[in-house]
Design a protein that fits this description.
The chain has helices at about 30-35, 55-60, 65-75, 90-95; strands at about 10-15, 25-30, 45, 50-55. It has about 100 residues and is of the alpha+beta class. Strand 3 and strand 4 form a beta hairpin. Bound molecules: iron/sulfur cluster.
Length: about 100
């Protein structure tokens, strides 16, 4: 077994993403980039952001280094469109953690 981004999670390669809308430079585990082949033994499960987790999600997110995974998981923040918000306050009522003041 091999840890893709090394024992400390810092062994990564910066891979340019041509025309990337969200990611311009992906942080991928160095051992993944050095591998000749990749075999994915995927299980199928529900996932909050992608709907279903499978080979594409597991490889796409799983091959990221620690920093790459942190970027992927922190980019899904809520965003309020000020043009569309009518100020009804529903979002403050339904947030399970009272995160919206
Ligand atoms: S729930 Fe209401 S207040 Fe919250 S973002 Fe949507 S329109 Fe705006």
């Amino acid at each position: 077994m091999l840890i893709g981004d090394g024992l400390k999670g810092t062994d990564e390669v910066l891979v340019p993403v041509e025309d990337g809308e969200y990611v311009k430079e992906a942080k991928i585990g160095h051992a993944i980039m050095d591998a000749d082949i990749l075999i994915s033994l995927t299980h199928f499960k529900g996932h909050e952001l992608t709907g279903f987790g499978g080979a594409l999600k597991n490889i796409g997110m799983g091959c990221g280094s620690r920093a790459g995974k942190m970027e992927m998981h922190s980019s899904g923040k809520p965003h309020v469109s000020h043009e569309q918000c009518v100020g009804c306050g529903m979002c403050t009522k339904i947030c399970a953690h009272s995160a919206i003041p």
